[in-house]
Amino acid sequence: MSAQELLALADDELILGWRNSEWTGIAPFLEEDVAFSSIAQTEIGHARAWYELAAEELGTDADALAFDRQPDEYRSARFVELRLVPDWAATIARHWLYETADAIRISDLKSSDDPRVAGLAEKIDREEIYHRMHADMWADRLRNEPRFAEALETLWPYALGMVDGAQRDRLCEGAGREPVTPIERGEHADELRPLWEEMTMVRRSIPGATW
Amino acid sequence: MVTAERVWEALAEIPDPEIPAVSLVDLGVVREVEVEQDRVRVSFTPTFLGCPAVEVMQRLMADRIRALGGKPKVEISPEGWSTDRITADGRRKLQESGFAPPTGTAPVTLVQIQSAVHRCPYCGSTDTRLENLFGPTPCRSIRYCEACRQPFEQFKTL
Predict the structure, then answer these.
(1) Span B4-83: which CATH code?
(2) Residue A194 and which of A156, A173, B76, B158 are 20 to 30 A apart at CA?
């Protein structure tokens, strides 16, 4: 697996982790404050693990990859960059679509030729079970809500752009939706820059500082 | 002279930073200890990848090994941790301190989690319900016991 492919995975997890953390303190109720904060924490933990693998190949470290690149160097999908707070219906729609797509991606990585990638995917897959259960529970709860249906419709081309090739057919099947033209990885959402400003702020304030 | 046995004993005394009732050995995060003269290599598997206690655990282990006169190298094992690795002793200690130990084996399903097979660590009733899949740390869920009307923390099965 190339360092660029690892970075795409890691960037998706890092950016989505940040987006999830935006619900900390303002979720509709306390349980969801805890849930989204915890999911954010594990997604960022997964990002770190993928960055570490990429860092070995690139001769750097995970923090440098996460925070020292310019916004246009990130490989994340536009899907995870969108800022959805305070829209709960859209947040759950993305959460569910992301977990559905990520499950397909992780299941392929579990049979990677690279034992480090396969091992990590195996470990991540176990943890993701809880994210999927949470997403499924909410998708079921909002199933008949027009705003949720609308959000799924809007986000669907973005979700398809998160996975590649044959994974897209599996995603259509998993999400129970017809194929549409995917919004491909490459161009970033306008919301990425302000997020980047925020998440790299401390690190940029004193370059090279150690903690 | 450092021996593997003494290292294991020392590691068994380190409380988990987030659930101090159990030790790192009880939790099953220590996989291997190899000693070659004064060099001590520990292979360790963190519980959850996002667990903030990972670095603390590594530091605590290295400190103990230094105290024994060894030169520590604490490496993260590529093999995944699973709750099956929590020892019988660890499960008992969890239970005694109000944490329900993990039940069954992974992968779990929502139906299993929502079912009432989970036992309250305080009164032993299985009349419990899922309150939140997520809790104060990545490894715990929150349940509520209908019998003794007490919320409790359930270790996730992984």
Answers:
(1) 3.30.300.130
(2) A156
With CA atoms as reference, the chain A residue closest to B158 would be A126
Q: What is the number of structural domains in chain A?
A: 1
Which of A129, A132, A211 would you mutate first to test chain B, the one with the most B CBs within 10 A?
A129
Q: Could you tell me how far CA A27 lies from the centroid of its own chain? A: 19
Residue A31 within a domain: yes
CATH of residue A100's domain is 1.20.1260.10
Q: Which candidate in A123, A128, A131 is best for mutational testing of the B interface (most B CBs within 10 A)?
A: A123
Whether A211 maps to a domain, the answer reads no
**Domain regions of chain B by residue span:** 4-83, 98-155
A145 in Cβ contact with A89 (< 8 Å): yes
Residues of B in contact with A119 (CB under 8 A): 78-80
Per-residue DSSP letters for B7-44?
HHHHHTTPBPSS-TTSBHHHHT-EEEEEEETTEEEEEE
Q: A69 Cβ partners below 8 Å, 6+ apart?
A: none
> How crowded is residue B44: how many other Cβ atoms within 10 Å of its Cβ?
20
Which residue from B49, B108, B135 is facing A34, i.e. has the nearest CB?
Answer: B135
For the record, the structure tokens of B5 come out as 């046995």
CB contact under 8 A, B110 and A39: no
The boundaries of the domain holding residue A136 are 3-205
Interchain CB distance below 8 Å, A35 and B132: yes
Q: How far is A3 from chain B (nearest CA, A)?
A: 19
Looking at the domain assignment, is residue A103 inside a domain? yes
Identify whether A141 is part of a domain: yes
Does A187 touch chain B if contact means CB atoms closer than 8 Å?
Answer: no
B-chain CB neighbours of A124 within 8 Å are 49
Question: Locate tokens 């990885």: which residue?
Answer: A185
Per-residue pLDDT of chain A (211 residues; tens, 9 = 90+): 899 999 999 999 999 999 999 999 999 999 999 999 999 999 999 999 999 999 999 999 999 999 999 999 999 999 999 999 999 999 999 999 999 999 999 999 999 999 999 999 999 999 999 999 999 999 999 999 999 999 999 999 999 999 999 999 999 999 999 999 999 999 999 999 999 999 999 999 998 888 7
The predicted model scores a pTM of 0.93
Candidates B48, B59, B137, B143, partner chain A, best to mutate (most A CBs within 10 A): B48
